[in-house]
Amino acid sequence: MAVSMATGLLLSSSTLTLRTPRFAFHTSSSSSSSSSSSTLRMAPLRIVTSATVSQPPPTGGKIRGIMKPKKISPEMQDLVGQPEISRTQALKSIWAHIKEHNLQNPEKKRLIRCDEKLKKVFAGRDEVDMLEIAGLISPHFLN
Predict the structure, then answer these.
(1) Which of 12, 18, 94, 138 is the most buried (most CB within 10 A)?
(2) Which residues form the DM2 domain (predicted)?
(3) Nearest to 9 by CA among 26, 23, 28
């Protein structure tokens, strides 16, 4: 049995007794005493013996989904400068273009003001919301 004076806990192999005035646990309904300590049953502690760091995917694995490079439209090629690009890299390139040319609306940061290159990609719109960008570039990825 071990006693910890700093936390007010009395530890034994099968029970935990709290002796702190902040907590009031009542485990039995027939208890009429107003004692500040009570006994709680606890499950045995699990001890972690080893941990491993997750490994990166093998280099020979197939790239799928939004990470897979696809052919893009000429308008998108003009903006990103590549004939094939993944959706994630296209979004990064678009955001780099927006930041480089200071196209974010200063009052409403969610709104992007389109220059000529962005107008070609964003269906001729003068201004788009940042959450619309992913949907507006979808038609530019060719099958």
Answers:
(1) 94
(2) 65-143
(3) 23
26-65: per-residue pLDDT in tens?
A: 555 554 555 555 566 666 776 766 656 656 656 667 888 8
Half-sphere exposure of 22 (CA within 13 A, CB side): 3
Cβ-defined contacts of 66-70 (< 8 Å, 24+): 70/141, 70/142, 70/143
For residue 63, give both structure tokens: 């790239």
Count the Cβ atoms, other than its own, within 10 Å of residue 22: 7
Q: What is the mean pLDDT of the chain?
A: 78
Cα of 51 vs its chain's centroid, Å: 22
What is the C-alpha separation between 80 and 26, in angstroms, rounded?
66
